Amino acid sequence: MQDEPSGAALLDAARRALTEEVAPGLTGRPRYVALMVANAIGIAAREIAQADRLRETGARLLGGAGHDALDDLIGTIRAGARDADPELHTRLSAATEAAADIWKPSKPAA
Known about the structure:
With 110 residues, this protein is an all-alpha fold. It contains 5 helices and no strands.
């Protein structure tokens, strides 16, 4: 059983407090630092919230085979050996979209 609020929700509340209450009262470098920390907190919160999705897309991409499989996949992609593989393209797109939902919050979540 998970206690509420979740870690992601707590991080989001901290991010909002920084951007809405703390940063507006700051100027110069302290404001920049507060906004940078708020951005990092937002990324961490989204990563926690999307952890299952990231794991699932990674497992589908690599077939659960791990780091060596990633190195092998990178090699075959660089060599052009998988250029005509629509299934790989679909899995790469899903993994990229999952990452974009974390790193680019303006992109609508899937």
